[in-house]
TrEMBL record:
Keywords: Cell membrane, Membrane, Transmembrane, Transmembrane helix. It is a multi-pass membrane protein. It comes from the Bacteria. It comes from Neorhodopirellula pilleata. Its main location: membrane. InterPro entries: Poly_Biosynth_Transport (IPR050833), Polysacc_synth (IPR002797). It is found in: Cell membrane. This is Colanic acid exporter.
Length: 491
Protein backbone atom coordinates (compact mmCIF):
# COMPACT_ATOMS: atom_id res chain seq x y z
CA UNK A 1 0.00 0.00 0.00
CA UNK A 2 1.48 3.33 -1.06
CA UNK A 3 1.74 6.36 1.19
CA UNK A 4 -1.11 8.26 -0.46
CA UNK A 5 -3.49 5.32 -0.02
CA UNK A 6 -2.54 4.89 3.66
CA UNK A 7 -2.89 8.61 4.30
CA UNK A 8 -6.36 8.69 2.73
CA UNK A 9 -7.41 5.60 4.68
CA UNK A 10 -6.24 6.97 8.03
CA UNK A 11 -7.62 10.46 7.37
CA UNK A 12 -11.03 9.04 6.44
CA UNK A 13 -10.99 6.74 9.47
CA UNK A 14 -10.20 9.67 11.76
CA UNK A 15 -13.09 11.78 10.44
CA UNK A 16 -15.54 8.89 10.53
CA UNK A 17 -14.59 7.65 14.00
CA UNK A 18 -14.50 11.15 15.55
CA UNK A 19 -17.96 11.89 14.19
CA UNK A 20 -19.31 8.55 15.38
CA UNK A 21 -17.88 8.96 18.89
CA UNK A 22 -19.40 12.45 19.19
CA UNK A 23 -22.73 11.15 17.88
CA UNK A 24 -22.71 8.28 20.37
CA UNK A 25 -21.89 10.59 23.27
CA UNK A 26 -24.97 12.63 22.37
CA UNK A 27 -26.99 9.44 21.85
CA UNK A 28 -26.15 8.14 25.33
CA UNK A 29 -27.19 11.44 26.89
CA UNK A 30 -30.55 10.94 25.15
CA UNK A 31 -30.76 7.35 26.36
CA UNK A 32 -29.96 8.31 29.95
CA UNK A 33 -32.84 10.79 29.96
CA UNK A 34 -35.20 8.18 28.52
CA UNK A 35 -34.05 5.50 30.97
CA UNK A 36 -34.49 7.77 33.99
CA UNK A 37 -37.72 9.58 33.09
CA UNK A 38 -39.69 7.17 30.90
CA UNK A 39 -41.60 4.11 32.22
CA UNK A 40 -40.01 0.79 31.26
CA UNK A 41 -43.18 -0.44 29.51
CA UNK A 42 -43.41 2.74 27.39
CA UNK A 43 -39.77 2.49 26.39
CA UNK A 44 -40.30 -1.16 25.42
CA UNK A 45 -43.14 -0.18 23.07
CA UNK A 46 -40.96 2.46 21.43
CA UNK A 47 -38.18 -0.09 20.87
CA UNK A 48 -40.61 -2.49 19.15
CA UNK A 49 -41.81 0.32 16.84
CA UNK A 50 -38.18 1.10 15.94
CA UNK A 51 -37.37 -2.56 15.24
CA UNK A 52 -40.41 -2.94 12.95
CA UNK A 53 -39.46 0.25 11.10
CA UNK A 54 -35.91 -1.04 10.74
CA UNK A 55 -37.24 -4.25 9.17
CA UNK A 56 -39.22 -2.24 6.60
CA UNK A 57 -36.07 -0.24 5.82
CA UNK A 58 -34.21 -3.48 5.13
CA UNK A 59 -36.93 -4.65 2.74
CA UNK A 60 -37.19 -1.33 0.87
CA UNK A 61 -33.39 -0.98 0.79
CA UNK A 62 -33.17 -3.97 -1.57
CA UNK A 63 -29.57 -4.64 -0.44
CA UNK A 64 -28.31 -1.78 -2.59
CA UNK A 65 -26.24 0.09 0.00
CA UNK A 66 -22.95 -1.71 -0.68
CA UNK A 67 -23.73 -1.83 -4.41
CA UNK A 68 -24.01 1.94 -4.45
CA UNK A 69 -20.84 2.51 -2.41
CA UNK A 70 -18.77 -0.01 -4.37
CA UNK A 71 -19.64 1.47 -7.76
CA UNK A 72 -19.24 5.12 -6.77
CA UNK A 73 -15.88 4.47 -5.08
CA UNK A 74 -14.54 2.31 -7.95
CA UNK A 75 -13.15 3.24 -11.36
CA UNK A 76 -16.50 3.62 -13.14
CA UNK A 77 -16.88 6.80 -15.21
CA UNK A 78 -19.24 9.56 -14.14
CA UNK A 79 -22.05 8.63 -16.55
CA UNK A 80 -22.06 5.05 -15.24
CA UNK A 81 -22.12 6.31 -11.64
CA UNK A 82 -25.12 8.50 -12.51
CA UNK A 83 -26.94 5.49 -13.95
CA UNK A 84 -26.25 3.42 -10.84
CA UNK A 85 -27.49 6.13 -8.46
CA UNK A 86 -30.61 6.63 -10.59
CA UNK A 87 -31.27 2.86 -10.66
CA UNK A 88 -30.98 2.57 -6.88
CA UNK A 89 -33.28 5.53 -6.22
CA UNK A 90 -35.94 4.28 -8.66
CA UNK A 91 -35.99 0.73 -7.28
CA UNK A 92 -36.10 1.91 -3.67
CA UNK A 93 -38.85 4.44 -4.42
CA UNK A 94 -41.01 1.77 -6.06
CA UNK A 95 -40.57 -0.55 -3.08
CA UNK A 96 -41.44 2.29 -0.69
CA UNK A 97 -44.74 2.86 -2.47
CA UNK A 98 -45.63 -0.85 -2.42
CA UNK A 99 -44.68 -1.26 1.25
CA UNK A 100 -46.62 1.85 2.24
CA UNK A 101 -49.78 0.43 0.62
CA UNK A 102 -49.20 -2.95 2.29
CA UNK A 103 -48.59 -1.48 5.77
CA UNK A 104 -51.58 0.86 5.55
CA UNK A 105 -53.92 -1.95 4.49
CA UNK A 106 -52.94 -4.88 6.73
CA UNK A 107 -50.40 -3.51 9.22
CA UNK A 108 -52.91 -2.69 11.97
CA UNK A 109 -54.47 -6.16 12.37
CA UNK A 110 -51.07 -7.89 12.10
CA UNK A 111 -49.46 -5.72 14.80
CA UNK A 112 -52.51 -6.10 17.05
CA UNK A 113 -52.37 -9.89 16.73
CA UNK A 114 -48.62 -10.18 17.38
CA UNK A 115 -47.99 -7.44 19.94
CA UNK A 116 -51.34 -6.14 21.17
CA UNK A 117 -53.63 -3.18 20.46
CA UNK A 118 -51.22 -0.64 22.00
CA UNK A 119 -48.80 -1.14 19.14
CA UNK A 120 -51.37 -1.26 16.33
CA UNK A 121 -52.14 2.46 16.71
CA UNK A 122 -48.64 3.31 15.43
CA UNK A 123 -49.18 1.70 12.03
CA UNK A 124 -49.79 5.00 10.24
CA UNK A 125 -46.49 6.40 11.54
CA UNK A 126 -44.44 3.56 10.06
CA UNK A 127 -44.45 4.66 6.36
CA UNK A 128 -43.03 8.07 7.29
CA UNK A 129 -40.40 6.50 9.57
CA UNK A 130 -39.07 3.89 7.15
CA UNK A 131 -39.53 6.10 4.07
CA UNK A 132 -37.36 8.88 5.44
CA UNK A 133 -34.89 6.35 6.81
CA UNK A 134 -34.29 4.72 3.41
CA UNK A 135 -33.71 8.06 1.67
CA UNK A 136 -31.35 9.04 4.48
CA UNK A 137 -29.43 5.79 4.01
CA UNK A 138 -29.18 6.34 0.24
CA UNK A 139 -27.74 9.82 0.67
CA UNK A 140 -25.25 8.61 3.29
CA UNK A 141 -24.18 5.86 0.86
CA UNK A 142 -23.43 8.51 -1.77
CA UNK A 143 -21.23 10.43 0.68
CA UNK A 144 -19.49 7.19 1.66
CA UNK A 145 -18.85 6.20 -1.94
CA UNK A 146 -17.42 9.63 -2.73
CA UNK A 147 -15.33 9.34 0.48
CA UNK A 148 -16.62 12.66 1.83
CA UNK A 149 -16.30 11.48 5.41
CA UNK A 150 -16.25 14.95 6.98
CA UNK A 151 -19.83 15.56 5.76
CA UNK A 152 -20.78 11.97 6.58
CA UNK A 153 -19.68 12.34 10.20
CA UNK A 154 -20.81 15.93 10.70
CA UNK A 155 -24.36 15.26 9.51
CA UNK A 156 -24.73 12.31 11.88
CA UNK A 157 -23.58 14.43 14.83
CA UNK A 158 -26.02 17.22 13.92
CA UNK A 159 -28.86 14.69 13.66
CA UNK A 160 -28.06 13.29 17.12
CA UNK A 161 -27.94 16.81 18.61
CA UNK A 162 -31.35 17.61 17.12
CA UNK A 163 -32.81 14.45 18.64
CA UNK A 164 -31.24 15.22 22.06
CA UNK A 165 -32.65 18.74 22.07
CA UNK A 166 -36.14 17.42 21.30
CA UNK A 167 -35.95 14.80 24.07
CA UNK A 168 -34.78 17.39 26.63
CA UNK A 169 -37.63 19.70 25.63
CA UNK A 170 -40.23 16.91 25.87
CA UNK A 171 -38.87 15.90 29.27
CA UNK A 172 -39.05 19.52 30.45
CA UNK A 173 -42.73 19.87 29.52
CA UNK A 174 -43.60 16.39 30.85
CA UNK A 175 -44.54 14.83 27.50
CA UNK A 176 -41.91 12.10 27.20
CA UNK A 177 -44.20 9.40 25.76
CA UNK A 178 -44.15 6.94 22.86
CA UNK A 179 -46.16 9.10 20.42
CA UNK A 180 -43.95 12.09 21.02
CA UNK A 181 -40.76 10.03 20.53
CA UNK A 182 -42.08 8.70 17.22
CA UNK A 183 -42.65 12.28 16.07
CA UNK A 184 -39.11 13.15 17.14
CA UNK A 185 -37.78 10.34 14.93
CA UNK A 186 -39.80 11.53 11.94
CA UNK A 187 -38.89 15.21 12.27
CA UNK A 188 -35.19 14.48 12.92
CA UNK A 189 -35.03 12.20 9.89
CA UNK A 190 -36.69 14.82 7.70
CA UNK A 191 -34.17 17.49 8.75
CA UNK A 192 -31.28 15.08 8.14
CA UNK A 193 -32.55 14.17 4.65
CA UNK A 194 -32.86 17.85 3.65
CA UNK A 195 -29.33 18.56 4.85
CA UNK A 196 -27.94 15.49 3.05
CA UNK A 197 -29.59 16.51 -0.22
CA UNK A 198 -27.62 19.76 -0.03
CA UNK A 199 -24.19 18.37 0.96
CA UNK A 200 -24.27 15.28 -1.29
CA UNK A 201 -25.31 17.21 -4.41
CA UNK A 202 -27.72 14.35 -5.02
CA UNK A 203 -29.51 15.99 -7.95
CA UNK A 204 -26.26 16.06 -9.95
CA UNK A 205 -26.30 12.22 -9.99
CA UNK A 206 -29.96 11.73 -10.92
CA UNK A 207 -30.21 11.18 -14.72
CA UNK A 208 -33.36 9.20 -15.45
CA UNK A 209 -33.30 9.93 -19.21
CA UNK A 210 -29.93 8.24 -19.71
CA UNK A 211 -30.78 5.13 -17.65
CA UNK A 212 -30.24 1.88 -19.54
CA UNK A 213 -32.06 -1.36 -18.86
CA UNK A 214 -28.72 -3.22 -18.77
CA UNK A 215 -27.43 -1.05 -15.92
CA UNK A 216 -30.63 -1.57 -13.95
CA UNK A 217 -30.36 -5.33 -14.48
CA UNK A 218 -26.70 -5.37 -13.34
CA UNK A 219 -27.47 -3.35 -10.21
CA UNK A 220 -30.35 -5.61 -9.24
CA UNK A 221 -28.37 -8.76 -10.05
CA UNK A 222 -25.46 -7.73 -7.81
CA UNK A 223 -27.78 -6.51 -5.04
CA UNK A 224 -30.12 -9.51 -4.73
CA UNK A 225 -27.62 -11.65 -2.73
CA UNK A 226 -26.85 -8.63 -0.54
CA UNK A 227 -30.59 -8.04 -0.08
CA UNK A 228 -31.12 -11.60 1.10
CA UNK A 229 -28.06 -11.17 3.32
CA UNK A 230 -29.62 -8.03 4.85
CA UNK A 231 -32.87 -9.90 5.50
CA UNK A 232 -31.09 -12.73 7.31
CA UNK A 233 -28.92 -10.20 9.20
CA UNK A 234 -32.07 -8.45 10.38
CA UNK A 235 -33.53 -11.81 11.38
CA UNK A 236 -30.64 -12.78 13.63
CA UNK A 237 -30.22 -9.26 15.05
CA UNK A 238 -33.88 -8.50 15.78
CA UNK A 239 -35.65 -11.84 16.21
CA UNK A 240 -34.84 -11.78 19.93
CA UNK A 241 -36.57 -8.41 20.40
CA UNK A 242 -39.62 -9.53 18.42
CA UNK A 243 -39.86 -12.81 20.33
CA UNK A 244 -39.53 -11.03 23.67
CA UNK A 245 -42.26 -8.62 22.57
CA UNK A 246 -44.56 -11.42 21.43
CA UNK A 247 -43.94 -13.92 24.26
CA UNK A 248 -43.26 -11.60 27.20
CA UNK A 249 -44.10 -8.09 28.41
CA UNK A 250 -42.73 -4.92 26.77
CA UNK A 251 -40.62 -4.45 29.91
CA UNK A 252 -38.50 -7.45 28.84
CA UNK A 253 -37.94 -5.73 25.48
CA UNK A 254 -36.86 -2.56 27.31
CA UNK A 255 -34.36 -4.48 29.48
CA UNK A 256 -32.90 -6.27 26.48
CA UNK A 257 -32.75 -3.01 24.49
CA UNK A 258 -30.82 -1.32 27.30
CA UNK A 259 -28.40 -4.27 27.48
CA UNK A 260 -27.94 -3.92 23.71
CA UNK A 261 -27.23 -0.17 23.71
CA UNK A 262 -23.52 -0.35 24.56
CA UNK A 263 -22.78 -3.22 22.11
CA UNK A 264 -24.75 -1.36 19.44
CA UNK A 265 -22.82 1.84 20.13
CA UNK A 266 -19.49 0.03 20.01
CA UNK A 267 -20.58 -1.64 16.76
CA UNK A 268 -21.34 1.79 15.29
CA UNK A 269 -17.82 2.90 16.13
CA UNK A 270 -16.49 -0.13 14.26
CA UNK A 271 -18.83 0.51 11.33
CA UNK A 272 -17.49 4.06 11.15
CA UNK A 273 -14.17 2.43 10.30
CA UNK A 274 -15.76 -0.09 7.94
CA UNK A 275 -17.31 2.92 6.17
CA UNK A 276 -13.71 3.80 5.23
CA UNK A 277 -12.39 0.22 5.03
CA UNK A 278 -14.90 -0.97 2.42
CA UNK A 279 -14.27 1.61 -0.35
CA UNK A 280 -10.52 1.36 0.34
CA UNK A 281 -10.61 -2.44 0.05
CA UNK A 282 -12.75 -2.13 -3.10
CA UNK A 283 -10.13 0.20 -4.56
CA UNK A 284 -7.36 -2.34 -3.91
CA UNK A 285 -9.35 -5.24 -5.34
CA UNK A 286 -10.48 -3.33 -8.41
CA UNK A 287 -6.85 -2.37 -9.07
CA UNK A 288 -5.74 -6.03 -8.85
CA UNK A 289 -3.68 -5.48 -5.69
CA UNK A 290 -4.94 -8.71 -4.13
CA UNK A 291 -2.00 -9.38 -1.79
CA UNK A 292 -2.18 -5.86 -0.36
CA UNK A 293 -5.89 -6.33 0.24
CA UNK A 294 -5.23 -9.61 2.06
CA UNK A 295 -2.64 -7.93 4.31
CA UNK A 296 -4.99 -5.03 5.03
CA UNK A 297 -7.78 -7.48 5.96
CA UNK A 298 -5.63 -9.52 8.37
CA UNK A 299 -4.00 -6.51 10.03
CA UNK A 300 -7.45 -4.95 10.48
CA UNK A 301 -8.94 -8.15 11.90
CA UNK A 302 -6.14 -8.57 14.46
CA UNK A 303 -6.22 -4.91 15.51
CA UNK A 304 -10.00 -5.02 15.90
CA UNK A 305 -9.86 -8.34 17.74
CA UNK A 306 -7.53 -6.85 20.37
CA UNK A 307 -9.42 -3.57 20.70
CA UNK A 308 -12.87 -5.11 20.79
CA UNK A 309 -11.88 -7.81 23.26
CA UNK A 310 -10.38 -5.12 25.52
CA UNK A 311 -13.69 -3.22 25.45
CA UNK A 312 -15.63 -6.42 26.13
CA UNK A 313 -13.65 -7.55 29.19
CA UNK A 314 -13.59 -4.01 30.61
CA UNK A 315 -17.37 -3.92 30.33
CA UNK A 316 -17.61 -7.34 31.98
CA UNK A 317 -15.61 -6.21 35.01
CA UNK A 318 -17.67 -3.02 35.42
CA UNK A 319 -21.07 -4.06 34.05
CA UNK A 320 -23.14 -2.86 37.02
CA UNK A 321 -21.32 0.48 37.09
CA UNK A 322 -21.88 0.90 33.34
CA UNK A 323 -25.64 0.38 33.74
CA UNK A 324 -25.82 2.87 36.62
CA UNK A 325 -23.75 5.55 34.89
CA UNK A 326 -25.25 5.29 31.41
CA UNK A 327 -28.85 4.43 32.27
CA UNK A 328 -30.51 4.01 35.69
CA UNK A 329 -30.87 1.69 38.66
CA UNK A 330 -34.13 0.18 37.37
CA UNK A 331 -32.14 -1.53 34.56
CA UNK A 332 -29.50 -3.21 36.78
CA UNK A 333 -31.05 -6.63 36.14
CA UNK A 334 -29.78 -6.30 32.55
CA UNK A 335 -26.10 -6.33 33.65
CA UNK A 336 -25.51 -10.05 32.97
CA UNK A 337 -27.10 -9.78 29.53
CA UNK A 338 -24.88 -6.75 28.84
CA UNK A 339 -21.70 -8.75 29.57
CA UNK A 340 -22.80 -11.59 27.27
CA UNK A 341 -23.82 -9.21 24.49
CA UNK A 342 -20.41 -7.54 24.60
CA UNK A 343 -18.82 -10.92 23.84
CA UNK A 344 -21.28 -11.29 20.98
CA UNK A 345 -20.30 -7.78 19.83
CA UNK A 346 -16.69 -8.92 19.31
CA UNK A 347 -17.73 -11.86 17.13
CA UNK A 348 -20.30 -9.80 15.21
CA UNK A 349 -17.86 -7.03 14.34
CA UNK A 350 -15.21 -9.44 13.07
CA UNK A 351 -17.90 -11.09 10.95
CA UNK A 352 -18.83 -7.72 9.44
CA UNK A 353 -15.25 -6.94 8.58
CA UNK A 354 -14.89 -10.28 6.80
CA UNK A 355 -18.23 -9.70 5.06
CA UNK A 356 -17.06 -6.32 3.73
CA UNK A 357 -13.85 -7.91 2.44
CA UNK A 358 -15.77 -10.59 0.54
CA UNK A 359 -18.11 -8.04 -1.08
CA UNK A 360 -15.19 -5.75 -1.98
CA UNK A 361 -13.64 -8.74 -3.76
CA UNK A 362 -16.85 -9.10 -5.81
CA UNK A 363 -18.18 -12.12 -3.87
CA UNK A 364 -21.59 -10.76 -2.88
CA UNK A 365 -22.99 -14.26 -2.22
CA UNK A 366 -20.56 -15.03 0.62
CA UNK A 367 -22.33 -12.89 3.29
CA UNK A 368 -25.65 -14.37 2.23
CA UNK A 369 -24.47 -17.96 2.71
CA UNK A 370 -23.08 -17.11 6.13
CA UNK A 371 -26.10 -15.17 7.34
CA UNK A 372 -28.51 -17.93 6.32
CA UNK A 373 -26.58 -20.21 8.67
CA UNK A 374 -26.40 -17.60 11.44
CA UNK A 375 -30.11 -16.82 11.19
CA UNK A 376 -31.24 -20.44 11.30
CA UNK A 377 -28.98 -21.23 14.27
CA UNK A 378 -30.01 -18.04 16.08
CA UNK A 379 -33.75 -18.59 15.61
CA UNK A 380 -33.49 -22.17 16.89
CA UNK A 381 -31.42 -21.03 19.87
CA UNK A 382 -33.86 -18.17 20.63
CA UNK A 383 -36.87 -20.49 20.55
CA UNK A 384 -35.05 -22.84 22.92
CA UNK A 385 -33.55 -20.30 25.32
CA UNK A 386 -35.78 -17.18 25.42
CA UNK A 387 -38.83 -18.83 27.05
CA UNK A 388 -36.61 -20.34 29.77
CA UNK A 389 -33.97 -17.65 30.37
CA UNK A 390 -35.55 -14.44 29.05
CA UNK A 391 -33.06 -11.75 28.06
CA UNK A 392 -30.07 -13.87 29.11
CA UNK A 393 -31.29 -16.60 26.78
CA UNK A 394 -31.60 -14.08 23.96
CA UNK A 395 -27.99 -12.96 24.53
CA UNK A 396 -26.71 -16.56 24.56
CA UNK A 397 -28.58 -17.28 21.32
CA UNK A 398 -26.81 -14.34 19.67
CA UNK A 399 -23.39 -15.71 20.68
CA UNK A 400 -24.19 -19.21 19.38
CA UNK A 401 -25.47 -17.90 16.04
CA UNK A 402 -22.63 -15.48 15.33
CA UNK A 403 -19.96 -17.99 16.38
CA UNK A 404 -21.27 -20.45 13.78
CA UNK A 405 -21.05 -17.67 11.20
CA UNK A 406 -17.44 -16.90 12.03
CA UNK A 407 -16.38 -20.49 11.39
CA UNK A 408 -18.13 -20.42 8.01
CA UNK A 409 -16.51 -17.09 7.07
CA UNK A 410 -13.06 -18.54 7.69
CA UNK A 411 -13.83 -21.41 5.33
CA UNK A 412 -15.41 -19.32 2.55
CA UNK A 413 -12.73 -16.59 2.55
CA UNK A 414 -10.07 -19.27 2.21
CA UNK A 415 -11.94 -20.64 -0.82
CA UNK A 416 -11.78 -17.25 -2.58
CA UNK A 417 -8.04 -16.97 -1.82
CA UNK A 418 -8.40 -14.49 1.04
CA UNK A 419 -7.34 -16.69 3.97
CA UNK A 420 -7.74 -15.27 7.45
CA UNK A 421 -4.92 -15.76 9.95
CA UNK A 422 -7.36 -17.41 12.36
CA UNK A 423 -4.80 -18.10 15.10
CA UNK A 424 -3.66 -14.47 15.33
CA UNK A 425 -7.23 -13.18 15.14
CA UNK A 426 -8.44 -15.66 17.77
CA UNK A 427 -5.64 -15.07 20.28
CA UNK A 428 -7.03 -11.79 21.75
CA UNK A 429 -10.48 -13.33 22.22
CA UNK A 430 -8.99 -16.43 23.86
CA UNK A 431 -6.78 -14.32 26.16
CA UNK A 432 -9.83 -12.25 27.13
CA UNK A 433 -11.93 -15.31 28.00
CA UNK A 434 -9.03 -16.78 29.96
CA UNK A 435 -8.64 -13.53 31.92
CA UNK A 436 -12.32 -13.55 32.86
CA UNK A 437 -12.27 -17.24 33.85
CA UNK A 438 -9.19 -16.80 36.07
CA UNK A 439 -10.75 -13.76 37.72
CA UNK A 440 -13.96 -15.67 38.47
CA UNK A 441 -11.97 -18.61 39.90
CA UNK A 442 -10.08 -16.27 42.24
CA UNK A 443 -13.42 -14.90 43.48
CA UNK A 444 -11.90 -11.72 44.95
CA UNK A 445 -14.07 -8.82 43.75
CA UNK A 446 -12.14 -5.60 44.31
CA UNK A 447 -11.57 -2.63 41.99
CA UNK A 448 -7.79 -3.02 42.01
CA UNK A 449 -8.16 -6.69 41.03
CA UNK A 450 -10.38 -5.77 38.09
CA UNK A 451 -7.97 -3.11 36.88
CA UNK A 452 -5.02 -5.49 37.31
CA UNK A 453 -6.80 -8.13 35.23
CA UNK A 454 -7.38 -5.62 32.42
CA UNK A 455 -3.73 -4.49 32.48
CA UNK A 456 -2.61 -8.13 32.42
CA UNK A 457 -4.73 -8.71 29.32
CA UNK A 458 -3.12 -5.75 27.50
CA UNK A 459 0.41 -6.92 28.37
CA UNK A 460 -0.28 -10.48 27.22
CA UNK A 461 -1.63 -9.19 23.87
CA UNK A 462 1.43 -6.96 23.33
CA UNK A 463 3.75 -9.89 24.01
CA UNK A 464 1.96 -12.74 22.21
CA UNK A 465 0.24 -11.04 19.24
CA UNK A 466 2.95 -10.07 16.68
CA UNK A 467 0.42 -8.55 14.26
CA UNK A 468 -0.52 -6.00 16.92
CA UNK A 469 3.07 -4.79 17.23
CA UNK A 470 3.22 -4.53 13.43
CA UNK A 471 0.05 -2.40 13.35
CA UNK A 472 1.41 -0.09 16.05
CA UNK A 473 4.73 0.21 14.23
CA UNK A 474 3.06 1.10 10.92
CA UNK A 475 0.85 3.69 12.59
CA UNK A 476 3.86 5.30 14.32
CA UNK A 477 5.79 5.34 11.06
CA UNK A 478 2.90 6.96 9.20
CA UNK A 479 2.28 9.66 11.77
CA UNK A 480 5.98 10.47 12.22
CA UNK A 481 6.34 10.80 8.43
CA UNK A 482 3.29 13.05 8.20
CA UNK A 483 4.47 15.20 11.12
CA UNK A 484 7.90 15.68 9.57
CA UNK A 485 6.59 16.71 6.13
CA UNK A 486 5.36 20.23 7.00
CA UNK A 487 8.62 21.20 8.68
CA UNK A 488 10.73 19.93 5.79
CA UNK A 489 8.53 21.74 3.29
CA UNK A 490 8.76 24.96 5.22
CA UNK A 491 12.51 24.81 5.46
Amino acid sequence: MNGEFKSKLLRGSTFSMAGTVLMLAVHFLSMKILAERMPVEEFGLFVIVQVISQGLVVVSGMGMALTLVKNISGDADRSQQDEIVTSVVLVRSLLLVLLTILVASVGGPVLAYLFGADLAEFVLFLPAMFGLAIFRETLFNILQGRQQFHWYAGTKVLSALTRLWAIIWLSHIGRLEVHELVWVEIITSAITVMLLICVSRFTSFFRIRTLRRLTLKQVIGFSVPLFLDDLFSYAYECVAVLLLGALMAPSSVALYAIAMKLPEAATRVLMSLVVVFFPSMSELMDAGRHDEGKRLMNLSLVAFSVGLSFIAITTFFFKEEVILVLFSEQYLVAATALALLMLNFVVTCLNRLMSSTAVAAGQSTVPLRVNVTISVVNVIACLALVPKLGIVGAALAQIVGNSSGQVLYLYLLKKIHLPVDAIEVGKPIGFGLLTVILYELVGYDEYWMRVSAIILYVVVCLVFVPHLARCIGQARSHWSTNNSQPSSTTS
